[in-house]
Design brief:
Largest sheet: 8 strands, parallel, barrel
Strand order of the largest sheet: 4-5-6-7-8-9-10-11
Shape: globular
Amino acid sequence: MSHRIYPTYWRGCRLALLLVAVFGCRAARANKVTIRDDRTFLIDAQPFFPVGLYYPEEELADETGALLKDLRSTGFNTVFFIDNSADPLGPKTRATLDRVAAAGLHTQWRPPGQLSWSFDVLKKTVTAYKDHPAMLFWEHGDEPMVNGGKFEEYLLGYKLMKELDPDHPVLMVEYPFWTDEARLKEFATACDVYAFDKYPIPLKRWFYQGADIPNGWPHSIAIMGELTAWWQTLAPGKPTLTVLQAWNRKPQEDGKAGYPTTRQSLFMAYQSVIRGAKGLLYYGKIRVTRPAPAVSIPPEVNADPKIAERDLRQAIELNDWFWADFNKVIKEVGGMTAVFAARDAGWTPQIQLADSPGVRLSDIQCRVKETDTGPVLLLVNASDHLARITVAAPKLGPTVHLWREARQLQEDAEGSFPDTLDPYAVRVYATKAGPAN
């Protein structure tokens, strides 16, 4: 073909290119969220592992978008959003969502009425924003059973949401009432994604969240992985999200001991993934400018203004101290999302224990992911004791790279290698070199 003979054809091509330039971003990012056969999330058919933060009010309010971009660079890819404005259809809401998307983040949005009431406003809100590129999940009101919610109301809101927006899953977060499994299963039918929250630190005092744990369950940070595994049985075929602790219930009383350490946090994250979590949400608040009882800053506002000011200042100082180091946890977890979202490899290593008093074989928990660069073995020691293990995994060798450490291990002729694990240690073994701590 030539320009001279087919001028109309070339004009059509130029028009098509112009349309792509103008509307290409929207077409390229349809932002349809589906769930793969292994419960992994797909955004526009691409695997996605949510790493989310609750209560980023200061970041969302920053009109420059810089604080949201800081969250993304830290490792988060999802943020909680609840619009309490008088006009959720106004320009402020859309501008906020635009900043979320521009930062490369997605949102779990608790809409007006929290899917239980105000259905007229809910319909208008969903119609206005369901195609926004920031959308990931719609979220029910928090902990229905804790807050005395009626199942029928949650189910009604869920069914309505599926009619209004079939392209974005509905998330529900519930507290694990061991003694009411039947009701937990019932509420699981009113969502597409079922999550639970549990905050085990400080271990010295579990408040009401420890006394109800049945015999046989670990009274330690290993409770997170065990709950993750159990939670999947409550909602067969649906993704499980684990809500992890990034806060202090009583900062004035517990001080620094009320926050999880970096080591504890990394263990809980990796163990949750190993036991089947398809995303991790962190309950906490990085920037604090005013009392926020929802994250215990402080847990209760004292009637005396001077004491209230002192408590708030102390809580902010502790929170700042915690996040200065906790950012490392989010950075690592965020950097592992491609591995976490990869399919399972279809094989598991053979593990043996040697001279490890107090450690059971079931305490050594693992999952193998098949990535573009080969298999990656995630492994934790879910016990209070030192574990000496031998791992038989010929597909990893002959040289096994430890991603979180600057060392390698050599397999023997049978494809096995030894390792020694501290209590609650995390290991990432791979065939090729990767990120180091």
